[in-house]
Amino acid sequence: MATIKERTAKDGTARYTAEIRLKGYPAQTATFKRKTDAKKWIQDTESAIREGRHFKTTEAKRHTLGDLVDRYIKDVLPTKPKQTQAQQPQLERWKSELGSYLLSDITPALIVECRDKLLSETTPHGNIRSPATVVRYMAALSHAFTIAVNEWQWLEDSPMRKVKKPKEPKGRVRWLDDGERSKLLIACKESSNRWLYLCVILALSTGMRQGELMGLQWQDVNLKDGFLILHETKNGERRRVPLTGHALMLLREHAKVRRLDTSLLFPSKSDPAKPIDLTKPWRNALKLAEINDFHWHDLRHCTASYLAMNGASLAEIAEVLGHKTLNMVKRYAHLSDGHVSNVVASMNAKIFGGCDGY
């Protein structure tokens, strides 16, 4: 039901106050100088309410992007502890650029302007910010908008949907050849840190991320059957990791001298509740082995590359590394070309036999 009431303003002119009352919704009112405008507002607003659009539009005019960022940091980020450290400064940056704008005034064009500014800036390390980093900035804001649309009902749609992400370079694939691997392992064995060699062997043989490896606890390790369980993984799912051969043997030896004041496999000397920091011994080992352009995470690339070269399918590599999709492991496809050729040759031999043709 809608009504229009006429009254006289202080300046003597007419004012028309329109009111809409629909069952199940709060009353809506607005005042206009012309009666025709009041009638049009009633028609448009009633239609928007029935279609579920009106209140989202109203909320978008009540809240700024700064409000959105503040609420997201307060209510949502604590549920993602692994991402808080990276995403909070990213969101604060968006707030510093666009925080004063009402959500109803945030357009794809404004976001594009900020995106391009991020791409052109120099980081504290003196480098131009990479497209991959800008994509992460955009992903943080995009998820905040998604929550505002789906859960808070502050927006009808996310403006990020119309903003193109910067093109990222192809995924890095840096792995050690036989000679490099041999030199690195010798250097790790000679390290003053007694656990460096074991940790590198575990990383190479299992494909675990550094955080997963450093967070290992004894209750999650089954030395008898040769496997361990990762509870805290990047994709949020538990993963069973096989242990075999040299890695399993070394870990069994390590278990014989485990510390009893901590559940961690590799605790820090100064604080048993925290994992050891291998940064310095790792760098020293790389220097001793004369290996350049290689990071700890590249050990994971080594695992995937060795699997591919030994005939593992992309699906099998994804399962070992803990990827939900094949997109992340497609970068290793070229390393398994020989295996693919053998599969195709085997299939042809089976269905065509020795026939030269039909």
From TrEMBL:
Domain Core-binding (CB) positions: 63-149
SUPFAM superfamilies noted in UniProt: DNA breaking-rejoining enzymes
GO biological process, one term: DNA recombination
InterPro entries, per the entry: CB, DNA_brk_join_enz, Integrase-like_cat_sf, Integrase_catalytic, Integrase_recombinase_N, Tyrosine_recombinase_XerCD
Keywords: DNA integration, DNA recombination, DNA-binding
Molecular-function GO terms, alphabetical: DNA binding
CDD domains in the record: INT_Rci_Hp1_C
Domain Tyr recombinase span(s) in chain numbering: 171-345
Domain of life: Bacteria
Family: Belongs to the 'phage' integrase family.
Protein name per Swiss-Prot or TrEMBL: Integrase
Native source organism of the sequence: Methylocucumis oryzae
